[in-house]
Amino acid sequence: MTARYGIYFAPGTDTSLWWKASAWLGRDAESGQTLDRPVLPGLGGLDLDAITADPRGYGFHATLKAPFELAAERTEVELLEETRVLSQRTVPFSAHIAPSALGPFLAFQIPGVSSEMQALHALCVCALNGFRAPLTEFDLARRRKAKLTPEQDARLVAWGYPYVYEDFRFHMTLTGRIADEAVRTRVLSALQNHFAPETRLTTFDSIAVFKQPDRSSPFTILARFDFIGDTTVATSQAR
User: Per the confidence metrics, is the pTM higher than 0.90?
Assistant: First the structure.
């Protein structure tokens, strides 16, 4: 089976945000260890394992470049080195985050738009695209079920994911799809209360490479690279 790699932001493992969110999902993507979920008031009777099943497999993170298989001529070592170089071009920045609804999902989001986050996303999408193998027909068909616009479809082929650049929305997923609006509102209220101390200015000071050995395995953190640049990230990448 072919491994996949994702370029993500993940909070430091020494932060309460990392530990509380990982515990909510039920798994630590740094160690791969299963965690006991906290008992949150108001959620009795809900199948929280099912509600968190999808994000649990990915680990707590925000996607900067969506998961991809390596191009045939590239190696994992080269990917890690290029990601390290990219991190050296980037300076830390801060933004407020808070749990909120993202359609039928719940996630930490940045209220409004962070130009620094948008620029970081654009840098990762463009600078690392040469490591990405073209999507298979299966993956193209799976993504196209979402009824993409012509521009989104073109970006899917060019960048491996349809929701990039102007369509990028920073989010750190906390649940899978919750179709029932009443249940979604109930879970959101509990998460907002639980994560109230983490609803604050958050520093973004690193990027992580996550690895999935095969499609049936969860993602874990392969490497993390701190930002050490002395200039702001560039936004002039060709599209």
Answer: yes
